[in-house]
Structure formats: structure tokens, C-alpha cells
Design brief:
single chain, 400 residues, five-stranded mixed β-barrel, OB fold (Dihydrolipoamide Acetyltransferase, E2P), binds adenosine-5'-triphosphate, alpha+beta, Glycinamide Ribonucleotide Synthetase, Chain A, domain 4
């Protein structure tokens, strides 16, 4: 049996995964056997999401009636009905539906009527509340197939701690990241020296450790020291897999995410607000201000660079998530570079021999390194600006 749940939370509290954890516990107490817990991320560009557009699926052995009554009881008790944007839904079905609806909700947009048509055609039990939008995520979650998957160990706070500052030992989180990276990722941001895996809002999540297997996330958690954890679930997820990415076979459509190759046709420019824009094969791309240090890397690109770009298409421009500099263009060096030792002006050391300093013994042997501030390879936005679905560069490098 499969039970899908979505759209129960609001920015003021709750979290659909927490509700999923409570429902699973209640099902177990009624004699059901929990087989798997899945946390499924859907199109990150839907405007009515609360945070990360997540839905959950509980796979279990037991009765459909028990499942629907339990889901109803917990939604009635915990869902944030007062929030305009909270429109819960649950679905219960005996067999897993075909994955088509999942792919539409992951990569495009769906309507409640489309969800109901599929649910009716497979004889599912379902209930939508208010505008019923939660049925879309609930159906997508039970229909999901995961050719690539990762795991997230979500630890939840004791209810009396909800809304208070989270108590944790930052050093233990850093140590956990050092010991388990790249098998676990997004635990600690080593550039900013801060945890990535601890949310800041009023929701029940204390931390979420992401990794390649159940064993790796359990190992990472074994290092952590924090306030008391009330409960935890190890979720199987499509996070960090690039499952949302399409190839632009017939152009770019609003609200979808793409990968494409191209040559930089206009060099990066810093716009008002600190956003950095550039063009790849005539397509306007942006590294927006929240991507912080990523913009400094983007500013190093020059016309002629060959790139593979990943990003979502919104309001006519690509919001860059990551890129690979496949082939760096040669930069014409007009002024001779500054010496890396004393900062003085350098002169050519002869054709193809790099530069030597006029003031001291400093030398740059590689003429390319002297002219470009970026090497060929992968670059991505910092972890706290990354989409949940985006495959981190450490996973791409693990593949090769
Ligand atoms: P959280 O991650 O904290 O649980 P959220 O960011 O998942 O919150 P929701 O509250 O679930 O946000 O709101 C997203 C809403 O959008 C849900 O009702 C879901 O069914 C719907 N939805 C998800 N994907 C699509 C899609 N591709 N097209 C149309 N609606 C969608």
C-alpha cells in the first residue's frame, strides 16, 4: 500500500515530513508494517510552494481504510488550515501508479483536475482540502520512480522546543562533515564555516543529514551533539539527483529547469542589486545576489568559453545552479600581470615561458594561469543557495 501526503505546512510551522513521521508511527501502532519512507521533491519553480516543494510517500503493509482514517485524523489535527497557501491532500492506493504524473509534477506543472482524473482511473482513495492542491504532490509522491536516489536523516525536535533557537554543538557538525564527505554532503559549508543542515524556521526539523546510503547518514549522525531529538526518519529521496533537469529540445519553457551546452557570447556584467548576467549561445543567464561567492567565479568567464549550464528558466532568463567550464578561451593579455610575490609589474620571460618580475625573483611559468582566474571544471552555487534537487558537484565527481 502507498500513502501520499502533501501541503500541510505553512511558513509559521509544521512540516509535511513531520506529519508523515507521526502518521507512520500511528500506522505501526495499529499493526501496519512500514516498508519505506520517501521524501519527494517536485518542481522547484512552482510559485505556491512553502519552502522546498516536498511531498511524502509511506509504503506499508496494511489496510487502505486504516491508512485513510489515520491520514485524515492527523491532517485535521496538525495541518495549518489558517494559511491561505495550505491546501492539504492525501491519497491511498494499493499499487504504485505509473510514473508519468510524477515526471509532470517534477519537471512541469499539473492541475488538480489532472490529479483527480488519474486518481479516479486507478481507483485510489483520496481527499483534498480547501482548493485540493495538495492532491498533486500526494499523487506525485506515490508515483515517483527514483533511478538515482539519496537519503536524508531528518531529526525532529521535541514539541516544547518548536519555535525556540536550536541548540547544537557546531564543532560536532563540522567534524561529522570532515569524516563523511563526500558520502554525506550539505552538512557543513567549509567556505562560510557554518552548518548547512540546520534550518532556521519554526518547523519541527532539528537537522537533516544527506548522503549516499542509510549507513553513511547514520555514521554522520553518530558524531553530532545537539538538544534532544524526539524522533527521526531516514527518508529515501530524489534530492541531489538533477531529476528535475530537461534538455531544451524545442526551446525553453517558463518554470522548467534545463541543461544545455554553449559558448559565452557576452561577458559577465554586474547589474543593480549585485546580480551578475552573461549570455551563453545568446541565452541570458544570471547568477543572482543570493548565490554570493559564486558570482565571483562567474565574473571570471570571458567570451568564447565553452560551458555546460544547469539552471531554471524564469521570466526569460536562466537562473544558473551550476556550470562546467569545458574549454576555457584564451585570453589576450594586454597588460603584463602583477607579480604573485611582491605585486610589482612583470615582463615576458620569452615566448611561451611565462613572466618574470622586474623587482624581485617572482616568476609565472604558465602563461594561461597568468591570464585566467578560473580553471576548467565544475562550479556550483553555495549549498544554502542550491535547489534540493540539484546534484551537488561532489556527486558528479564521484560518478566519474
Ligand atoms: P515543505 O517542503 O516545507 O513541506 P513545500 O515547499 O513542499 O513545503 P507545499 O506546502 O507542499 O510546499 O506546497 C506546494 C504545493 O504545490 C502543493 O499543494 C503541491 O501539491 C503543489 N505542487 C507541487 N508540484 C506542483 C506542480 N508541478 N504543479 C502544480 N502544483 C504543484
Amino acid at each position: 500500500m502507498f500513502l501520499g501526503l502533501d501541503d500541510t505546512d505553512s511558513p509559521d510551522g509544521m512540516c509535511t515530513t513531520y506529519l508523515g513521521a507521526l502518521v507512520a508511527e500511528a500506522l505501526e501502532m495499529q499493526g501496519c508494517i512500514i516498508k519505506n519512507m520517501r521524501l519527494i521533491r517536485l518542481n522547484p519553480n512552482v510559485p505556491w510552494k512553502t519552502r522546498g516543494n516536498a511531498a511524502v510517500c509511506i509504503e506499508f503493509e496494511g489496510g487502505a481504510e486504516i491508512a485513510s482514517q489515520t491520514a485524515e485524523r492527523f491532517i485535521d489535527k496538525y495541518a495549518m488550515f489558517d494559511c491561505l497557501n495550505t491546501n492539504p491532500g492525501f491519497v491511498v492506493c494499493e499499487t504504485k501508479p505509473a510514473p508519468d504524473f510524477y515526471y509532470s509534477a517534477l519537471r512541469g506543472f499539473c492541475t488538480v483536475d489532472e490529479a483527480k482524473a488519474v486518481l479516479d482511473s486507478i481507483g485510489a482513495i483520496y481527499k483534498g482540502y480547501k482548493n485540493c492542491r495538495g492532491l498533486i504532490g500526494a499523487l506525485a509522491a506515490v508515483s515517483a520512480e527514483l533511478p538515482d536516489k539519496t537519503y536524508e536523516y531528518l531529526a525532529y525536535r521535541k514539541p516544547d522546543a518548536f519555535g525556540t533557537p536550536r541548540v547544537f554543538d557546531a564543532d560536532s557538525f563540522r567534524k561529522s562533515a570532515e569524516e563523511t564527505f563526500p558520502h554525506c554532503f550539505d552538512t557543513w559549508d567549509f567556505a562560510a564555516e557554518k552548518p548547512v543542515c540546520i534550518p532556521h524556521g519554526k518547523d519541527p526539523v532539528l537537522f537533516g543529514i544527506r548522503g549516499e546510503s542509510r549507513e553513511w547518514v547514520e555514521k554522520a549522525v553518530s558524531y553530532l551533539q545537539s538538544e534532544e531529538v524526539e524522533r527521526f526518519v531516514i527518508w529515501e529521496t530524489n534530492q541531489g539527483t538533477d531529476a528535475h533537469i530537461l534538455s531544451p529540445t524545442s526551446g525553453f519553457e517558463e518554470g522548467r529547469s534545463y541543461v544545455f551546452d554553449g559558448v559565452v557570447t557576452s561577458a559577465p556584467k554586474t547589474q543593480r542589486g549585485g546580480h551578475v548576467s552573461f549570455s551563453v549561445g545568446g541565452v541570458v543567464c544570471y547568477a543572482f545576489e543570493p548565490t554570493k561567492s559564486f558570482r565571483n567565479i562567474v565574473r571570471e568567464l570571458i567570451e568564447g568559453d565553452c560551458l555546460t549550464v544547469f539552471g531554471s528558466f524564469q521570466k526569460g532568463v536562466i537562473h544558473v545552479e551550476k556550470f562546467c567550464l569545458r574549454k576555457a578561451a584564451k585570453k589576450e593579455v594586454r597588460a603584463s600581470p602583477r607579480c604573485p610575490v611582491c605585486g610589482g609589474r612583470m615582463t615576458s620571460a620569452g615566448k611561451g615561458k611565462g613572466y618574470k618580475c622586474r623587482e624581485c625573483s617572482g616568476r609565472i611559468r604558465d602563461t594561461e594561469a597568468a591570464s585566467r582566474g578560473i580553471a576548467e571544471g565544475w562550479y556550483e552555487v553555495p549549498p544554502d543557495a542550491r535547489r534540493h534537487l540539484s546534484k551537488p558537484v561532489c556527486r558528479i565527481q564521484n560518478d566519474s
